[in-house]
Specification:
With about 290 residues, the chain is of the alpha/beta class. The protein is built from 8 helices and 12 strands. β1 and β2 form a beta hairpin. The protein starts with 10 loop residues before the first helix and ends in a 5-residue tail after the last strand.
Length: about 290
């Protein structure tokens, strides 16, 4: 029996636009504006088969996480204690690992048995792979979905709270971003520290213009910019990630939405920079562990 839905033949364009990394995947889009309403459509339909919450638009973090939180000594705290703080939302492993993490770390946790709240958090951020660390500002707005990369690249938190930068230096930590959408990587013959700066300055105006345009539309960057030293291991890393050649033009303004996932366990907590720095670190951390999903 044929499907009653319309079919779009340029599937790779949609695959890239919505950064789909696993199938099946269902994304709800507002036909009038073209903006993503919900990235985790399969999970939404599972949780709300009668469509009582339709059109399933995003809700504020404070509303989604509302409820009692647990400490690893089994005492409770109210989710309101997170308000006014930077919060790290960390999506990690399933039940067994969650138990181990939670017993060793001083973070708060959404009770693992609260599947409805875990599912709502997953739907809110459309998590598609683990581990993922999302940084929120004091008002609950997303600063970056690449928190794990930022922590690995900046363990002393000198650039905290890690607002997106127009041009990045390609590293082993952030190379994972190469398969999340179109990227432009400029390789230069640089062996000494600081020799990549001219390359950054070359890309900066174009990248800043594209970033401003995307921010004004409340969209993610349609193209990521990197610079890298002309070293064999860096070129091999790009080849491994299968980066496609792209053209940069004035009219290219497609928005790309972040990933999509399913069913997580959640914990939240207070943390400090691992080096006891005074320049900043997330005030609160939300650790989301992934239960087995079928």
């Amino acid at each position: 029996m044929g499907s009653p839905w319309l079919r779009y033949n340029d599937t790779m364009r949609l695959w890239n636009k919505y950064k789909v990394t696993s199938i099946p995947s269902l994304v709800f889009v507002d036909a009038a504006t073209g903006k993503v309403v919900c990235r985790n459509g399969l999970l939404v339909v599972r949780d709300d088969p009668k469509g009582l919450e339709f059109p399933w638009g995003p809700k504020p973090f404070a509303e989604v996480v509302a409820g009692p939180l647990l400490r690893n000594n089994r005492q409770t705290a109210d989710s309101g204690s997170l308000e006014g703080h930077y919060v790290g939302v960390y999506f990690s492993a399933h039940w067994d690992s969650f138990q181990q993490y939670f017993s060793e770390m001083p973070w708060l946790a959404v009770p693992y048995s609260d599947e409805a709240r875990r599912s709502r958090l997953n739907r809110l951020y459309g998590i598609q792979g683990i581990p993922t660390l999302i940084l929120l500002d004091a008002e609950g707005h997303v600063i970056t979905r690449q928190g794990r990369v930022e922590v690995l690249n900046d363990p002393e938190c000198r650039l905290f709270p890690w607002h997106p930068r127009p041009v990045l230096e390609l590293s082993e930590a952030n190379a994972v971003q190469l398969h999340e959408g179109p990227c432009l990587v400029l390789f230069v013959d640089a062996e000494e520290e600081g020799e990549l700066e001219p390359a950054k300055e070359l890309l900066q105006p174009v990248a800043e213009k594209l970033m401003a345009k995307s921010k004004a539309k409340d969209e993610e960057m349609p193209l990521l910019f990197f610079v890298a030293g002309e070293e064999e291991e860096e070129k091999e890393k790009v080849e491994e990630e299968e980066v496609e050649e792209v053209e940069v033009g004035e009219e290219e303004d497609d928005g790309y939405s972040p990933p999509v996932l399913a069913g997580w366990g959640v914990s939240l907590g207070q943390t400090r920079c691992p080096h006891a720095c005074t320049h900043g670190a997330p005030d609160q951390l939300l650790n989301v562990s992934v239960p087995q999903h079928t």
